[in-house]
Specification:
Elements (H helix, E strand, L loop, with lengths): L7 H7 L3 H10 L13 H8 L4 E8 L2 E7 L9 E2 L3 H15 L31 H5 L13 H5 L4 H7 L14 H15 L3 H13 L21 E2 L1 H12 L3 E2 L2 E2 L3 H7 L4 E2 L6 E2 L4 E5 L2 E8 L3 E6 L4 E7 L10 H21 L1
Antiparallel strand pairs: 1-2, 1-12, 3-4, 5-6, 7-8, 8-9, 9-10, 10-11, 11-12
Length: 348
């Protein structure tokens, strides 16, 4: 029982109202346990009542314990995972560095951009590195949320990103922006001599035995880096599980343990209170357990919890926002208040 519940009797009565229980979880209360057909049955009962949530998949020790589509496409159909694409892109960045196509995280990206940086751009722009872009610390004016639509309506997304005023020195302030990952995506494609679609399918798709369909391109024909990639919930599980198991999926190598460690090192605070940000991954410590998660607009989520041998996937309506104190808070509450306690019991 949590401090907001007046008594065990009241807490048990509240179980009967699923929406109230979700509110309890969002407020920090623990979900009362009771006998169920499957170990996570209560979680799925609650999740079904979250109108915006389309699918939920829970895997532990590499095995899918339960996975259901409540509404929308089935679990094998690729869906738009929005900014989860940023984490997928970070995997491609690690691959480029490991192959020597880009020397290091500290490498400036300007040499890979085919002279599209405006001559009148801030002189600091040419010092922006791969790490600055992945950590959202380029210093460039951010294009996300309310400013995103105007930016992607422009004629040259990279040129216009560099043309806008720089708001901070590179490597100092976190300014979340899809322009950062798009710049990096073009740099990665140039360094490899392939399109971002080809790289995604060869370096992420092939190891996971999935295929990425073509997605949004800019007016110059470059695939958008960091948004609008499509992957199924099953594919999301394989990706998260590979990160949980030091970079491999069924003996196929996706990335290296060293790259995962780098991506999961906290660099700045995130937009969610007490959550931090690494290289495109959000980092959250809840009840002494580290949760690493990829997050996309609307509530597209991959949670990876090595301490609980746990990978959790959620997809939501991509046409609706997931406010920090709204839908996103509910998803986090399902993880911290319901899934993690059950997963802990299953570890013993």
């Amino acid at each position: 029982m949590c401090w907001e519940c007046p008594s065990p009797k009241t807490c048990n009565a509240m179980r009967q109202d699923r929406r109230t229980v979700l509110a309890m979880l969002a407020a920090g209360c623990a979900l009362p346990a009771h006998a169920a057909p499957t170990v996570f049955e209560d979680v799925f009962t609650l999740a079904r009542e979250v109108e915006q949530l389309n699918t939920l998949l829970i895997a532990q020790h590499g095995k899918i314990i339960d996975a259901r589509a409540f509404r929308g496409p089935d679990l094998n159909t690729p869906v738009n995972v929005k900014s989860v694409s940023k984490s997928l892109l970070s995997t491609l960045a690690g691959a480029a560095i490991e192959r020597g196509e880009i020397p290091s995280l500290d490498s400036p990206v300007a040499p890979y951009l085919k002279r599209v940086i405006p001559r009148r751009a801030d002189r600091r722009a040419k010092s922006i590195t791969v790490e600055h872009l992945l950590a959202m610390q380029s210093g460039l004016t951010p294009f996300a949320g309310r400013t995103y639509g105007a930016w992607v309506s422009g004629k040259h997304w990279i040129y216009e990103a560099y043309e806008a005023p720089m708001l901070a020195d590179p490597g100092t302030t976190r300014l979340y922006s899809t322009a950062n990952t798009h710049i990096l995506g073009v740099a990665l494609a140039t360094a490899a001599g392939k399109s971002l679609l080809e790289l995604a399918n060869e370096r992420v798709g092939d190891p996971l035995d999935i295929s990425f369909p073509p997605w949004t391109r800019d007016p110059q024909g470059n695939y958008l880096g960091g948004n609008d990639m499509h992957i199924s919930p099953i594919g999301m599980f394989r990706y998260g599980e590979a990160y949980r198991t030091n970079g491999t999926w069924q003996d196929e190598t996706l990335t290296s343990p060293g790259w995962i460690e780098i991506c999961w090192q906290p660099r700045t605070m995130a937009d969610v209170p007490e959550h931090r940000y690494g290289l495109t991954w959000f980092l959250w410590d809840t009840n002494g357990v580290r949760v690493n998660y990829a997050r996309g607009y609307g509530g597209q989520m991959i949670y990876v919890v090595p301490e609980r041998a746990l990978t959790v996937v959620m997809t939501s309506n991509p046409g609706r926002p997931a406010p920090i104190n709204g839908h996103l808070k509910t998803l986090h509450a399902l993880v911290s208040g319901a899934i993690l306690p059950i997963a802990q019991r299953e570890m013993t």
